[in-house]
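Issue: ligand-bound run for manganese (II) ion - logging full I/O for the record.

Environment: standard queue, default settings, no custom constraints.

Inputs:
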Amino acid sequence: MDYSLKSADPAKIECDCIVTFAYKNELSNDAKKLDKQLSGLLSDLLTNSGLSSKSAGMAMLYNTDQICAKQVMLVQLGEKAELTAAKFNSKLTGLINQLKDKPIKSALVCLAGVKPKGIDLMGFFQAATRVCENTQYHYDTTKKSKKEKSALEEIILHTGQSKFLMPARRAVKLGLAISHGESLCKELGNLPANICTPSYLAEQAEKLGREQNLNVNILDEEQMAELGMGSLLSVSKGSDEPAKLIIMEYNGSKNKNAQPVVLVGKGLTFDSGGISIKPAAKMDEMKYDMCGGASVFGAMRAVAEMELPINVVGVVPSSENLINGKANKPGDVVTSMSKQTIEVLNTDAEGRLILCDALTYIERYNPAIVIDIATLTGAVIIALGDKATGLMSNDQKLANNISKAGNQCDDRVWQLPIWDDYQSQLNSNFADIANVGGRAAGTITAACFLSRFTSDYRWAHLDIAGTAWVGGAKKGASGRPVPLLCQLLINHNQKPL
Ligand code: BES
Ligand code: MN
Ligand code: ZN
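Outputs:
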């Protein structure tokens, strides 16, 4: 989709359709102006189409001879005082999808006048662009029948005043980049595990590196063995697919030595549970167990496209968790790269086993901050459902910044404590630490496990098991938390987190 910005009188802009907005019983200011130029047809539409009572209402006006556009779509936003950025974004998604069903090539959206409270104008433009572009993603890679392309080619965003044209250009660029990152994250997540293997992810990283000018390095099992990654390799031993440690470096800062932000994503391409096998119901959804890794791919793609002048490193430990004669057995003791030994009491707690070695590996970058992203525990779904990502951190300032970024882009997190009091649940009689801490506080004890490997830097952990994909009829990857990670990097560039 092409995006452009205009500030001229909407009535004088040539396009197939103008989209303008109304509140509960009142046209927005932009719509009022158009209404005058259309001799009151829009106010008629508002009162007579039932639009004012329906909060999801959209109505189309075709007799628009007095203006340049061929038609006008009036969209009801509900009560003005109750309009939030999230509500607006879902309206925008709905209306763009409507437009895409029609023979409309270009649409002018009168955005500027309907900015919800609590968001700045450029943040609003960034989000709007992202939301429009997100309607473009559709999974059909493994289907014979592909979706027909819609006629809609150009979205023109109206900035109100001409002084906003320049900053809005940047906002559109950011919004587009984030959306492209989300799409990459969704696509990798949605691909089945027989295609999306650790080797496939490694190839995709090489490809991304070529396209976006990232330094990409892939460690194979031999190299990981040399580094002493006995914990990570204990998981991949049980599978025919070799593990990969994927490393992507983006050097946007003029200062080569500027401390990077390091993102570490769980790239478990299929989680059967291993010998501690999972129940059959919904086991297909364990192809999504690499969504943390996919979100790192998405964020790396976006940060390169945004051209942020910062350094970012993305690391994705990738493996399958399957069962063969060499697979981990409950009670096995493995040695991590940090030299701490781990008793594998449950082979289904494999995410932390591959993450801990990656978290030790990245110490070499002297990171400014480290964020790991993982579909780590079913327990976080019980705690927070599919609305909030679980956040845990050893640094409260970092945690606060992450919460703030999540609120800014409506990709929200909720913090859980990782007090020392929980650590004793991980005691083992046979190793330095056990890989599970019992049923109580499962999300927290998983983070406590990771915290044993992250004490040397500022670190936060995002448990996305509830938010990375949706199940049911609309089953599919959500692209979360790519918007959050991108917003964090944007904020970090403005003021170090
Ligand atoms: N990948 C799963 C977590 C998960 C479960 C994500 C369901 C999304 C939906 C993870 O590897 C896992 O199996 N965790 C176990 C940990 C337990 C054995 C301590 C869990 O949550 O049951
Ligand atoms: Mn598991
Ligand atoms: Zn898992």
